[in-house]
Structures are given as structure tokens and as C-alpha cells.
Amino acid sequence: MSDPQSHKVKMKELQASQRAKIAEATDPGRGLVLVHTGNGKGKSSSAFGVIIRALGWKHSVGVVQFIKGTWVTGERQFFERLGEVTWHTMGDGFTWNTQDMDRDIASARAAFEKACEMMSSGAFDLIVLDEINIALRYDYLDVEAVLEGLKARSNRTSVILTGRDAKPEICDYADLVTEMTEVKHPYAAGIKAQRGVDF
Questions:
Q1: Residue 144: is its pLDDT beyond 70?
Q2: What distance in Å separates the CA atoms of residue 130 and residue 64, rounded to the nearest whole number?
Q3: Which of 34, 40, 138, 176 is the most buried (most CB within 10 A)?
Q4: What is the Cα–Cα distance from 76 to 44, expressed in whole angstroms?
Q5: How far out from the chain centre does Cα 120 lie?
Q6: For residue 100, what pLDDT is reported?
């Protein structure tokens, strides 16, 4: 363990380094694209946390959900009660439940059409495309079309794309990519999803 004086010296050096990085950083003059992917839990939850942060700054926020369908979740109920988030749930539910590829494709395309309308409108500071990576994974959407939609967004608008197996093309375009890694999951031990923790 270092002594207080050497600790203070190290922290001063770290402070100077951080301040230099901040001084060199520039504002891109446009919204960012963030990807939350990976096999671990927390992709959508993290996006909803960013929504709370944006609302704290009185930003305009929208959500388009691609897969979850009529599934009742705590976050949706909360944000609907709050009344400050434009929310569209347009999927028909998990793909293993619908078992209808044509219907899933139609739902995904309708959701993406709504997303493009919102992204290009200039009315939103932040839009979350929840589980869009799953729609891309199953080829319900074309990755090039999604990239074009992202590129056509208003300069004001940041976008978060969630879901496992994000396409490499999307990750290459994004400003931030976070991969959630599963270390341990209660479902693997036979514990069912818990209201208020998992959904």
C-alpha cells in the first residue's frame, strides 16, 4: 500500500492526464450511435438508464421495440406513467413464439419504418431501437437499409441499438459498442425471470 504522499503525487499525475484528454476531445456536432450487444443481460436495461439520463437533461426521447410485443415490462409501464417518452412496441413477441417468418418480417419492417421517420424528424435527442439487432440477426431487416437509416438521422439525434449478435457493419459504424458478457445467470440454475429485476 502506497503512503499518502506518493498517492497524492499519482493522483495529481492522473488528474493532469485526464484534463489533457478532455481538452483535446472535440464535439462531433451530431448525435452518436451506440450499440449494446453480447450474450449477457443488461443491454436494454443500460439503454433505459441512458433514457433516464437524457430525460434528466430535458431531452426528447423515443423508443421503438422490435421483438418484445405485448409482453408487459416494468420499464414500459414506468415510462408510460411518466408520459415523457414516445414509445412504440411493434414486434409480435419472441421469434420462437410467433413461428411465422413472414409476420415477423412485416413487423420488423413496420417498426424500422417508424424508426426512420423518428430518426429523420429532428424531433428527438435520443432514440432507442430495442432488440433491433435480433431483427437483423434473423434477416428480418437488411443491414444496409439500417445503416442508411442511421446515416439519414437528424444531426440532433443519438441512437442506441440493443440486442445480441450485432452485425459487424453496425458495430463498425457505431461510435460506441459495448458487449455484455454473461458470467452467471439464474435461468441456467432453473430460476424463472423475476418481475422487477428481469422484466
A1: yes
A2: 6
A3: 34
A4: 11
A5: 18
A6: 74
Cell of 39: 450474450
CATH number at residue 140: 3.40.50.300
Place of cell 506518493: 6
Of 14-18, 153-157, 183-187, the range with the lowest mean pLDDT is 183-187
When pLDDT is averaged across residues 152-160 and rounded to a whole number, the result is: 98
Q: Taking the CA atoms of the chain, what radius of gyration do you get in angstroms?
A: 19
61 pLDDT higher than 80:
yes
Look at residue 198 and tell me if it is in a domain: no
Q: Residue 18 falls within a domain, yes or no? A: no
Name, in order, each residue with C-beta under 8 angstroms of 29's C-beta and a sequence gap of 6 or more. 155
Task: Say what the pTM is.
Answer: 0.91
Instruction: Name residue 164's amino acid.
Output: R
Domain that holds residue 177: 31-189
Please tell me the distance from the alpha carbon of residue 85 to that of residue 55, in angstroms, as a whole number.
9
> 120, exposed or middle or buried, with CB in 10 Å at 0-12, 13-18, 19+?
middle
Domain-located, residue 9: no
Number of domains in the chain: 1
**Does some domain include residue 17?**
no
Contact 167, 173 (CB under 8 A): no
- Cα(81)–Cα(185) distance, rounded to whole angstroms? 30
